């Protein structure tokens, strides 16, 4: 499933890259709330879909992909973390619900992607990054994120699973940066060391901003909740300012 936004010289596709399920309170953490696993789906009844998406930009200067969703082998890959119990993926592991299938629907293979931008290196964004380790695709992440993960001592820390990105030749960007004309990253840290948002300026359809997981910080704020593993919310205000300015 995909949605397409056309522009004169750019085409933007929003690709489904796997749907997890989880206790929704995880996304909207409030003090005193505990997370449920899949054997307690109905207690409390807040078990909900947690979709992931990728964005493909067909640009005159190359194809850009934003994020990679969840992996087909989630059930085993996530075992060291226990995430497979808390964020099980709904898609059939051999079915069409993953990024490689979404690209194949567009008759694309990973090495048809010129630039992969990772919003951050969490297990549900960077999981398929190694699919693009082909010597051709540039793989970009925030310098703060790249520095941050260097401090992880074991196989994982929080939602960073080292095997997703170790050994990859990651190209770093700092702060706000234009990747290609009309395609920029915006530094929106807080969710992780170097979470970035994506800004795409479409000539006819206006500016689109993809906030990655920074959006959940805003949801927490709106609910009056406090994010336990984030440092603050100026980054959300910044995304909102950008969105208000451009949309
Ligand atoms: Zn995340």
Walkthrough of the structure:
- By secondary structure, this protein is of the alpha+beta class.
- It has a single domain (2-175), classed as 4-Layer Sandwich (Metallo-beta-lactamase, Chain A), CATH 3.60.15.10.
- It is 18% helix and 30% strand.
- It has six helices and 13 strands.
- The radius of gyration is 17 Å and the shape is globular.
- It starts with a strand and ends with a helix.
- Bound molecules: zinc ion.
- Residues 120, 122, 159, 191, 213 line the site of zinc ion (ZN).
Descriptors:
single chain; 247 residues; alpha+beta; Metallo-beta-lactamase, Chain A; seven-stranded mixed β-sheet; 6 helices; 13 strands; globular; binds zinc ion
* Topology, number of strands: 13
Q: How many DSSP H or I helices?
A: 6
Instruction: Please state roughly what percent of the residues sit in beta strands, choosing from under 5%, 5-15%, 15-25%, 25-35%, 35-45% or over 45%.
Output: 25-35%
Helix content: 10-25%
Contiguous uncertain segments of 5+ residues:
217-233
User: Mean of residue pLDDT?
Assistant: 84
- Enumerate the strands of the largest sheet in spatial order, edge to edge or round the barrel: 1-2-3-4-5-6-9
Ligands bound, unique:
zinc ion
Query: Which architecture name does CATH use?
Result: 4-Layer Sandwich
Q: Note the run of SSEs as H and E.
A: EEEEHHHEEHEEEEEEEHH
Distance between the termini: 25 Å
CATH topology-level fold name: Metallo-beta-lactamase, Chain A
CATH class: Alpha Beta
